[in-house]
Amino acid sequence: MNAKKTLNMALVGAGRIGSFHAETMARRLYNARLVAVADPAPGAARKLADSLDCEVAYTDPAQAFSDPNVDAVLIATPARFHTPLAVSAANAGKHVFCEKPMALTIAEAESVIDAAQRNGVHLQVGFNRRWDLAFAEGRDAIDAGKIGRPQLLRSLTRDPGPFNADPLKIPNWTIFYETLIHDFDTLLWLNADAKPVEVYAVADALVRPDAKDSGHLDTAVVTIRFDNGAIAVAEANFCAMYGYDIRGEVFGSGGMVSMGDVKKSSLRLLDKDGESADTWRMDTHHFVDAYTLQIQHFVDTVLGNTSFAGPSGRDARAALAIALACIESVKSQKPVRLSDIAVL
Ligand SMILES: NC(=O)c1ccc[n+]([C@@H]2O[C@H](COP(=O)([O-])OP(=O)(O)OC[C@H]3O[C@@H](n4cnc5c(N)ncnc54)[C@H](O)[C@@H]3O)[C@@H](O)[C@H]2O)c1
């Protein structure tokens, strides 16, 4: 049991989602404090720290890891830096909340899990969908046996359009490593007692076909077979013109649960054009509660106020194994056995 009542946290990576998480640490949690921000981009850490009345800004994450006032770090840098930063933070004795993906290879994932274990620090990964009320209630209903034995599962991510990013600046395979990894975690979590056996992925550049030759992929469908017989489908697209559309469904022998709604609220607008409703446009609007609850859980776990419910480093490794299987499947245009990727 940790006797501290407030957790001192540092943000590493003051970009889009890091800035939102910093605001959560500074303003939305009752027992955490944002005590430092670290980012090598000139002025980025200082600017964010100043906006949140946080005194300390670092240009090197190592400074946050050696700061004795920091109990825990939240890593929100580009994905390729997650593993080295998480390992360094754990080796410095800091508890680690890491944005997804925690790692890009199985060996990297194991190095983070190992560093956290060796140093006796908590490790949680940012699969926020588990903390969304509908998804959490769906999992509860499945656990309570209300839909019987899961047979078909579905999870989808359609990012809001228009797609304005430069596809050449998006690392190859991002659709699996960073987008669908949420869906893989969701499917594994909803089909909790089963292990994935085989993956088949089809992907294309339908939003930006002009970027396909550089390896850009913005549309994908994945089927996953589980060892309890269940079959799952995950799909993603980078440009849903009607909003940020995140949904899940589990169909079982006794019924089904459906989770998520692109509709922002129960508001119906009736006017000269007929009836309409507003939709979610941004992850930080849709998931403000889920993003907050996941970090609240991390803080409460570290402070000893609750027992850890995940997502763990091992959960991140399992979702990563599916992403890696997808990449192999797209390359070979064949189904890939999970046992060829990692022992799960
Ligand atoms: N869970 C979610 O729903 C969710 C949503 C958005 C992003 N993400 C993940 O969060 C991560 C960051 O995404 P983003 O959109 O905020 O990226 P971003 O590019 O907006 O921000 C990244 C920031 O990290 C900084 N940075 C780069 N190298 C660094 C280093 N070595 N140490 C410290 N800071 C460093 C950059 O200067 C930048 O400010 C990605 O892995 C992404 O997949 C998760």
Q: Give the tally of structural domains.
A: 2
Unreliable residue runs: none
- CATH homologous superfamily annotation of the largest domain: Dihydrodipicolinate Reductase, domain 2
| Integer-rounded radius of gyration | 20 Å
The CATH first-level class of the largest domain comes to: Alpha Beta
Oligomeric assembly = single chain
- Structural class, please? alpha/beta
Ends: how far apart?
31 Å
- Give the name of the CATH architecture of the largest domain: 2-Layer Sandwich
Beta-strand fraction estimate? 25-35%
Hetero ligands = nicotinamide-adenine-dinucleotide
The strands making up the biggest β-sheet line up spatially as: 12-11-7-10-9-8-15
User: Total number of helical segments?
Assistant: 10
Characterization of this structure:
- There is one protein chain.
- The protein has 344 residues and is α/β, with parallel strands linked by helices.
- The protein contains 10 helices and 15 strands.
- Bound molecules: nicotinamide-adenine-dinucleotide.
- Nicotinamide-adenine-dinucleotide binds next to helix 1.
